[in-house]
Amino acid sequence: MTVFAIAENAVRLLLRDRANIFFVFIFPLLLVLLLGAAFGGATTAELVVAGAGDGPFSSRIVQELQANGAISVVTTDSSEEARTRVARGRAVGALLLPDGLDASLGGGDAPAAQPAYVAGPDAGARLLQVTVEAALRQVDARLVAAAVAADATGVDRGTALARAEAIAGGVGGPRVTVTTAGVEDELFAEYADAGVHSVLTHQQVLLFTFLTSLTAATALIQSRRLGVARRMLAAPTTVGRIVVGETLGRFAVALVQAVYIVVGTGLLFGVRWGAPLGWVPLLALFALVSSGAGMLLGATFSNEEQTGGLGVLFGLALGALGGCMLPLELFSPTMQTVAHFTPHAWALDGFREVVGGGSLGDVGTELLALGGFAITLLAAATVALRRSLLRAT
Amino acid sequence: MHAAWLVTRKDLRQRVRDRSAILLGVVIPLALAAVFDLTFGGVADGDFQPRYVVAIEDDGPAAAGLRDALTGIAAEGAIDLTTAPDRAAAVASVVDGDRDAAIVVPAGFSAGIATGGGDVEVIGSPDAPLATDVAAAIARGFTDAIVARRLAVATTLAVGGDPREVEAIVAAAGRPGLLVLTTGEVADEQLDQTTYLAAGMAVFFVFFTVQFGVSSLLLEREQGTLRRMAAAPIPPWSVVAGKGLTSILLGVASLTTLVLATTALLGAQWGAPLGVAALIAAVVLASTAIMAVTAALARTPAQANVLQSVTAVLLGALGGVFFDVTLGNEWLEGLSLITPHQWFLRGLGAVHADGASGAMPAVGALLLFTAIGVSAAWLVARRRAVT
Fold first, then answer.
1. How far B347 CA lies from chain A's nearest CA (Å)?
2. Using one digit for the tens of pLDDT, what is the confidence trace for A309-335?
3. Residue B374: CB atoms within 10 Å
4. Long-range contacts: A87-90, Cβ < 8 Å, 24+?
5. Beta-bridge mates of residue A50
6. Per the CB < 8 Å rule, is A181 touching B91?
7. What integer pLDDT is reported at residue A1 of this predicted model?
8. Which residues of chain A neighbour B345 with C-beta distances below 8 Å?
9. Cα–Cα nearest to A255, from A218, A212, A296
10. pLDDT at residue A110 is higher than 60
């Protein structure tokens, strides 16, 4: 059948280009690996403490901070290093303990230079600051208790301090209880459930599939330029069949790439995709949409080099707008609406449903939307290709 | 020298006529930076002002103390505070999404302090975990002060204080502490989001821009024009020099245009012009050298294309162009330092913090890349010429 012959030819041409082997199969996994390394790490905020020597009070402060499970404490001798770490974004904030802190506090006096907090640009710096203040308060409370006791009874400060430390744990008092109320935003909940790495990978598979199909548009241009397409027309076949054949070839490559990424990342990195009955149709339709977009690009433009660049542009731009770089959850409501003019956003919605436990039946709307995109793009590609083939040029 | 310049002029004219240089060097990076800015803009750099509602169901002085503390913080503009008549109303506004968290002081709180009971409740929205944590921390600041007083009293009594003087002891326990956390310093060497995206796209695409010059050498060899140039009475290195100059001029033109365009159109803030210029020059040299190595390794223009695309994309990804690699693993951050991209971005960050002179370490590193690249390209080309 002509259609399959055309398809097979398209696939063979695509795979013969070594660059494609790299970009289609190797690079996606590499990028997912990189993303995992970059974002799969700890979710604690880092605090750098500078200048904590061996003194009893500064080590007590560090101890209090280390007891907090939400932050990870890094100590250093140099306040410059602490500042740099915060400036570069590695640490959320830094606590600079001045020289002579332990000496002053030991003598019952306020230190000449107070501890200083250096905030980074991250929004979490404020929370870290109040956490540091809380740790300082704990230490301060014991110092004040010892001072009051010493003044009132004439006992020496050291003994009083030891007593304060001993009974501090048993002193009752008002506490703060924290609970939540209200329903979690569904999107947020499912996002948190799937794990950051999985969501990032969902985004990448869509980005790559679309990008590959668009950059493969140059092959179609080449075939038009070399006159191959026109000769195909000379055979007893219609423009429609040529479009179907070329699309089928690209669709095969796109689908294989997408499934390869899904299976590869699932096996190698433990990325979650959910029930196959859910993600396979989503991927298949998205691959069809991508092929259609690539066909449209290849049928409309005539300069290979320029189109290569344009393919990259549209691939990355639509990917970004569709939620493949920054998660949709973080978009403003306006941008979320804009995002749904791209197939990517619908596919991502679908993946979220499936990872959250859904299957074929739950992603009906998304499949319908993707189908709509596919039909529109393929129809436009057919019109464009027919026009370009039947022209006298 | 004159011959090299002729080669450059010819190449530049060819490229500009082709329009692909303009597309890849200016239009596409600019368009992408704009799209990214539109999509991501305003997300990361927001001002964090949590919205709280406080419900005080107690009449006592301790409860009033908490309300005053919260009002004080609100007056500074750090939080947005409203009051509710009771717990139910406060929780309702959190559930409705009007408020991020509710702080509730139950009836009997002040009276309960003496006996050690009574908790302050913070009820937060599950969609605002950060705001909830901050509310809890503020509330704890308040309760900690109460607990501290109790500790002072307990310690005094434990070391032999007179229980009949509790009143006086409690008063004395209210004295201020010895430690005060001073704040105000902000360390920020990071580029704002818009500039980071613009710089990332610019440095990513410059590798594609400079590739024109160096790989045209291969194209000319294939077309046969290289041999004819070699036959001309010109110094043998002038062709290579000319091609190299083409790459450099295209690269500098592209980056300069992008800096100006993103500043004017997107509001990017690149920093001190001298520092930025130095970084542009250095990264163009480094990228030309690296692309020269790939061109030297390839045998045909098609091969060179593949090698160059792969190199440019790999180095770009590792260098933090698509996402910030410095926020992750330490070793990933270290690995990214083998890419010119990361040095370029870091250099810009340093210029942002320290002015033009901050660019020096990055410029030095980029020049080192250039030296290594040029030597490697020369060695490979010589070995190829001999075999």
1. 12
2. 788 888 888 998 998 887 777 777 788
3. 18
4. A87/A120, A87/B187, A87/B188, A87/B189, A87/B190, A87/B353, A88/B189, A88/B190, A88/B326, A88/B349, A89/A120, A89/A121, A89/A122, A89/B189, A89/B190, A89/B324, A89/B326, A89/B327, A90/A46, A90/B326, A90/B327, A90/B333
5. A76, A96
6. yes
7. 58
8. none
9. A212
10. yes
Report how far apart, in Å, the C-alpha atoms of A70 and of each of A65, A132, B13 are.
10, 12, 60
Across residues A152-181, what is the average pLDDT? 86
Mutate to test the interface with A, among B39, B189, B206 (most CBs of A within 10 A): B39
What mean pLDDT comes out for the span A150-156?
A: 85
CB contact under 8 A, A173 and B146: yes
Task: With cut-offs at 50, 70 and 90, classify the pLDDT of residue B208.
Answer: confident
- Report CB contact under 8 Å: B127, A184: yes
For B325, how many CA atoms within 13 A lie in the half-sphere containing its CB? Answer: 30
From A234's Cα to the closest Cα of chain B, the distance in A is 30
- For residue A188, the model assigns a pLDDT of 55
Among partner residues B116, B168, B179, which is closest to A172 by beta-carbon distance? B116
DSSP state of A46: E
Nearest to A115 among B109, B156, B179 (CB): B179
Torsional sign, CA B320, B130, A191, B45: negative
Tokens 């006996």, located at residue = B115
Q: Are A119 and A126 in contact (CB under 8 A)?
A: yes
The C-alpha of A322 sits at a distance from chain B's nearest C-alpha, in angstroms, of 9
B272-280: average pLDDT? 94
Q: What six digits make up the tokens of A165?
A: 């430390």
> Which residue among A144, A167, A335 places its CB closest to the CB of B177?
A144
pLDDT bin (cut points 50, 70, 90) of residue B45 is very low
Nearest residue of chain A to residue B171 (CA atoms):
A148
- Phi and psi (nearest 5°) for B185? -80, 130
Are A178 and B136 within 8 A, CB to CB?
yes
B320 pLDDT band (50/70/90 cuts)?
confident
CB pairs under 8 A between A and B: 323
CB contact under 8 A, B39 and A335: yes
* Beta strands per DSSP E along B40-132: 51-56, 80-83, 101-105, 120-124
Query: Residue B46 pLDDT > 50, yes or no?
Result: no
* B180 contacts chain A (CB < 8 A): yes
> Quick check: pTM over 0.90?
no
